[in-house]
């Protein structure tokens, strides 16, 4: 931590001891008795409040998203002239929506360049005048722990495009791919069952052809001019630089990502990570910890932490530390209307965003599934020694991280651990 934080910690040691006594915490560590109250800012210890005030915003500025794009060269690095030439600008983009040539679906009106009726950007926006939806989503890579960014995504439901093709029958799946430098070896595609396109599971927005992020046109790096957006999925389903959509009678998935031993059906998981904590503290100094929790499709009920002194034994058959003395952290409230971040126009959540009140800009529920929430806790001081800090979530079904889906290839969810040294 910075020197100023260390100084602040030292200055507030006595104040924080009184705070813990007020909360009924006894003993040098007090970890098993700690019950962090869901207090608002005026009731928080100042050292914790200072850590909270340095947290990132809930939404990410589009240019600050982490980029994990594929391609050689990556399509967003092409010159503007080249992007125009290959159809990756709003005025040159078109989308072919056709039958899978190998497992044919029956479409009465496929949208093709050959017929001159491929979907262009202007037509997509006209559809958006009646059908556009907006929703919040954290974008997370299946094989990277930390999210790439969180935003408000806008576009037209894919099902509206399906109806333009006058579908008849033999449609069991849809798969889609983006621009790949005209190199078959670089093709990247993902797929969905057709029922996910036609009907939204309870609580989930539709799959969309997305053209805006945080109220702004997608940039080339974010997949412009149009990308697929699957609300509950990891990043690989959200194909950038969209060029083709195929409706198919194939009975199984054909995602490129499946070739890498990945679980291509996994939805976003619920888990917690730290954002700030002191790596070194003095004996009995309070320990301020902040972090984020990704609320996956199972929702988020609690965030918990546990500090274990190194060398202490623990039952070897308790792989996920279910009997450890976890304590509840505070899940911070949703931001006020103009503090979401993300470089939103007028610093406001766009109107008619699913899950938000149009009048107040407040979320209908918090934490929101498919979003990040921040959390914080001030732990009492510890005796000198070396410790391991862990954090976990409890989802809305009462399942503790890493359950119910602990396996690595379906998304990172291992319990995070960090080292803390209490100097003598």
Automatic annotation (TrEMBL):
GO MF term set: heme binding; molybdopterin cofactor binding; sulfite oxidase activity
InterPro entries: Mopterin_OxRdtase_euk, OxRdtase_Mopterin-bd_dom, OxRdtase_Mopterin-bd_sf, TAT_signal
A Gene Ontology biological process term: sulfur compound metabolic process
Taxonomy of the source species: Bacteria, Pseudomonadati, Planctomycetota, Planctomycetia, Planctomycetales
Domain annotation Oxidoreductase molybdopterin-binding: ranges: 148-249
Annotated source species: Gimesia panareensis
Protein name, UniProt field: TMAO/DMSO reductase
Residue segments, region Disordered: 64-83
């Amino acid at each position: 931590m910075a020197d100023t934080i260390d100084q602040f910690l030292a200055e507030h040691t006595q104040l924080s001891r009184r705070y813990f006594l007020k909360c009924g915490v006894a003993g040098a560590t007090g970890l098993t008795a700690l019950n962090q109250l869901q207090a608002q800012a005026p009731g928080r210890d100042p050292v914790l409040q200072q850590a909270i005030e340095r947290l990132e915003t809930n939404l990410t500025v589009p240019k600050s998203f982490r980029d994990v794009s594929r391609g050689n060269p990556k399509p967003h690095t092409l010159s503007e002239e080249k992007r125009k030439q290959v159809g990756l600008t709003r005025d040159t983009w078109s989308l072919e929506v056709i039958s899978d040539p190998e497992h044919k679906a029956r479409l009465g009106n496929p949208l093709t360049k050959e017929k001159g009726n491929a979907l262009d950007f202007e037509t997509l926006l006209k559809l958006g005048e009646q059908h556009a939806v907006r929703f919040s989503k954290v974008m997370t890579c299946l094989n990277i722990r930390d999210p790439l960014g969180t935003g408000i995504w806008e576009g037209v439901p894919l099902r509206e495009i399906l109806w333009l093709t006058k579908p008849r029958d033999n449609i069991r799946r849809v798969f889609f791919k983006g621009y790949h430098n005209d190199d078959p070896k670089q093709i990247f595609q993902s797929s969905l069952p057709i029922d996910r396109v036609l009907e939204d599971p309870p609580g989930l927005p539709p799959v969309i052809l997305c053209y805006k992020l945080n109220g702004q046109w997608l940039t080339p790096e974010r997949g412009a001019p149009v990308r697929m957006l699957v609300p509950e999925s990891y990043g690989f389903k959200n194909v950038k630089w969209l060029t083709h959509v195929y409706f198919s009678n194939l009975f199984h998935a054909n995602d490129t990502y499946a070739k890498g031993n990945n679980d291509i059906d996994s939805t976003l998981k619920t888990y917690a990570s730290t954002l700030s904590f002191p790596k070194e503290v003095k004996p009995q100094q309070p320990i301020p910890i902040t972090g984020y929790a990704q609320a996956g499709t199972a929702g988020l009920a609690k965030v918990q932490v546990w500090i274990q002194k190194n060398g202490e034994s623990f039952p070897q058959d308790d792989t996920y530390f279910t009997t450890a003395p976890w304590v509840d952290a505070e899940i911070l409230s949703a931001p006020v209307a103009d503090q979401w971040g993300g470089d939103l126009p007028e610093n406001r959540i766009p109107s008619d965003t699913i899950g938000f009140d149009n009048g107040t800009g407040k979320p209908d529920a918090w934490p929101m599934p498919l979003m990040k929430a921040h959390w914080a806790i001030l732990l009492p001081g510890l005796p000198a020694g070396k410790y391991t800090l862990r954090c976990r979530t409890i989802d809305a079904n009462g399942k503790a991280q890493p359950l119910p889906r602990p396996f690595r290839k379906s998304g990172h969810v291992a319990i995070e651990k960090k080292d803390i040294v209490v100097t003598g």
